[in-house]
Automatic annotation (TrEMBL):
GO terms for cellular component: condensed nuclear chromosome; Mre11 complex. Its EC number is 3.6.3.27. This is Rad50, putative. Residues 5-53 form a coiled coil. Gene3D superfamilies: P-loop containing nucleotide triphosphate hydrolases. GO terms for molecular function: double-stranded telomeric DNA binding; G-quadruplex DNA binding; hydrolase activity; single-stranded telomeric DNA binding. Keywords: Coiled coil, Hydrolase. The keyword Hydrolase applies. One of its GO terms (biological process) is double-strand break repair. PANTHER family: DNA REPAIR PROTEIN RAD50, RAD50.
Length: 285
């Protein structure tokens, strides 16, 4: 009996040990299970984060593509507008160039018409029938505009009155002819371009002119003054030491006063004079 009792006790002890081991193992399994659950939750969070990241990346990509498409469409519209504007500007430049060329031709015709008419009124010689300005196209400048060279030509009368020879005036005319041509050209330019604001100054216009041409010049200037009488903006300033020319201008126009400039004690003085005084007299009324 004693042996059986000891045997039973030993078996009970073994059973208790086994139970303890199982209990310890169960506790470990529970801890592992808890850890696995935690890891599972963390994995789920990571999966959600990754899924959210993919979603947002896809969303950003879609937004970027939309913005890029909008920018592309906007730039394409701007390009079409700019191309249209460039085409319009090209058309405008062509039309402007044509208009300027036509304007240039019209003005040259007008200027030369005035030059020829005035030359034939004033010039008393029988060797030069007329003079005119020649405009010759020499190409385009850096801005793409046409460039012209200008020269003064005169038409020499040959054996017959209708036989005219065109030659350059530069270096082939007398001093008097040169002075007369300069004055006539200036008058023509003033008539063509200074209709609304005409100020013309002539300094010693009778230099190298003989008496006959001086008389004709005074008459032409008087005609110019008469034609511009009603134009308030027109002013003709004549500087001259030629008393006879001044008298002619006074006789042909309604001008009653002039300004006299002289030196006194080393200083220049200017006084307003009336034509009924002796010309160039320093004494005032």
């Amino acid at each position: 009996m004693k042996q059986q009792k000891e045997k039973a006790t030993n078996e009970n002890s073994l059973i208790l040990m086994k139970l303890k081991e199982l209990e310890i193992q169960q506790i470990g399994n529970n801890e592992n299970l808890q850890r696995l659950k935690i890891e599972e939750k963390e994995a789920e969070k990571e999966i959600k984060i990754l899924q959210c990241g993919d979603y947002y990346m896809k969303l950003i990509q879609e937004i970027d593509e939309k913005i890029i498409q909008q920018d592309y469409s906007q730039k394409l519209i701007e390009l079409d507008i700019k191309n249209g504007l460039c085409n319009d500007i090209d058309v405008y430049i062509d039309e402007l160039e044509k208009t300027l060329i036509n304007y240039h031709k019209e003005k040259m015709l007008q200027i030369n018409k005035t030059i020829i008419s005035t030359w034939r009124k004033i010039y008393q010689g029988n060797d030069i029938s007329k003079i005119e300005i020649k405009a010759e196209e020499v190409g385009e400048n850096q801005a793409g505009r046409k460039s012209f060279n200008y020269r003064i030509v005169m038409y020499i009368i040959g054996k017959n009155q209708d036989d005219l020879k065109e030659i350059d005036m530069k270096g082939r005319c007398s001093s008097g002819q040169k002075v007369l041509a300069c004055i006539i050209i200036r008058l023509a330019l003033a008539e063509a371009f200074t209709i609304n604001c005409g100020i013309l100054a002539l300094d010693e216009p009778t230099t190298n002119l003989d008496q006959e041409h001086t008389i004709k010049l005074a008459q032409s200037l008087s005609d110019l003054i008469e034609s511009r009488k009603g134009q308030e903006s027109f002013q003709l300033i004549i500087i001259s030491h030629d008393n006879n020319f001044i008298k002619l201008m006074q006789q042909n126009t309604e001008c009653s006063e002039y300004y006299y400039v002289y030196k006194e004690n080393g200083c220049s003085k200017i006084t307003r004079r009336k034509y009924n005084n002796a010309l160039m007299n320093r004494e005032l009324d």
